[in-house]
Specification:
alpha+beta, Serine Threonine Protein Phosphatase 5, Tetratricopeptide repeat, 7-stranded antiparallel beta sheet, 6-stranded antiparallel β-barrel, 8 helices, 26% strand, elongated, disordered N terminus
């Protein structure tokens, strides 16, 4: 599973032909998404992105700054040293204190206010180049650690780590964090609620001198058994281990009956196992909890079409069947 996860330490964001934000809003947010440069204590260099959440504070991923001997934030071509950082290693969020930065702070929204299928925009830096954007949609909102980790179709790669995920009103709803191998929808962002909690608890005593960070690893880099269920399920789905996914989804739904996600996963597993009536029931349970769940609705529609085709095929076979008349000797 560790190899299945890719940390985002070198750049790249795909430019988007369409815009969830208007151009003026994009330009405004561009002044708040900053480049992070990290000389490593053991040698080498890491690049990432960050988002200004106060005039002198920038949030980024701890996996960008984890091995830092020093950290520099680049704004308007000017490199400013980071005086200190506060870290939440398990959530992979670090808050950088940058005296004199005077960057315009973004408005902080809530991942909990998003809906599956909603349009979002990712902003981050590529190596040696300017900021670029990627427009996408929310695929899933994974309940974890008191909030919802955002899975979306916004394509991003190394160097975008710590960049911002914004709703169509220009509010920061997530921090670009990691992606999974396989598929086009495996991009994950830390919820803005975690950023707000880090800000609310960032008294000066919590900030520490910039140095390599020891201690806990992010939840998404933990051993498989210690990872949240949504990541375990993603691995099973990626490897087409449908029987195991069914078992995980059923146990998950029993322990958290108000969460639509395990019902969606159960429906996906049962459809692959060709148990269509059970798959339909699971998807209807998902939609009963989250009527706006676009992926489950589309999957259920596809399942119903598949059933109709099968019934039509059976009806056609019955009309052509006949018993031959015995020949007279």
């Amino acid at each position: 599973m560790t190899k299945y996860l890719i940390a985002l330490l070198l750049p790249c964001l795909a430019a988007a032909p369409a815009w969830a934000l208007d151009r003026a809003e994009y330009v405004r947010l561009g002044t708040s998404v900053l480049r992070i440069e990290v000389p490593r204590a053991a040698g080498g260099y890491a690049l990432g992105s960050g988002v200004a959440v106060d005039s002198d504070k920038v949030v980024t991923n701890c996996h960008v700054t984890r091995d830092a001997s020093e950290i520099r934030v680049v704004r308007g071509g000017v490199r400013r040293p980071v005086a200190a950082q506060a870290s939440d290693l398990e959530r992979d969020l670090c808050l950088l204190l940058v005296p004199g930065l005077q960057a315009p702070a973004v408005s902080i929204g809530r991942a909990a206010d998003l809906a599956v299928g909603q349009t979002v925009t990712a902003l981050g830096f590529t190596g040696g180049m300017g900021m670029q954007s990627s427009q996408g949609e929310v695929v899933e909102l994974h309940r974890h650690d008191g909030s919802r980790v955002i899975q979306s179709t916004n394509w991003f790669s190394s160097g975008a780590s710590g960049g911002g995920l914004f709703d169509d009103q220009g509010r920061l709803v997530g921090v670009l964090t990691f992606r999974l191998r396989g598929g086009e929808v495996h991009y994950f962002s830390a919820p803005a609620e975690w950023v707000q909690q880090l800000l609310d608890g960032s008294e000066p005593a919590r900030f520490a001198k910039v140095m390599p960070l020891g201690g806990a690893v992010p939840y998404w880099q933990a051993a498989v058994a210690a990872q949240p269920r949504f990541l375990q399920a993603s691995s099973l789905q990626h490897d087409a281990r449908w029987n195991e996914l069914e078992a995980v989804a059923r146990a998950w739904a029993r322990s958290d009956p108000d969460d639509p996600e395990p019902w969606h996963l159960l429906g996906a597993a049962l459809e692959q196992l060709d148990r269509l009536p059970e798959a339909r029931h699971a998807l209807e349970c998902c939609l009963g909890l989250a009527p706006e769940h676009a992926a489950a609705r589309a999957q259920l529609a596809g399942l119903m079409q598949r059933r109709q085709r099968a019934e039509a095929s059976m009806a056609g076979d019955m009309t052509t069947c006949q018993i031959d008349t015995p020949r007279t000797p």
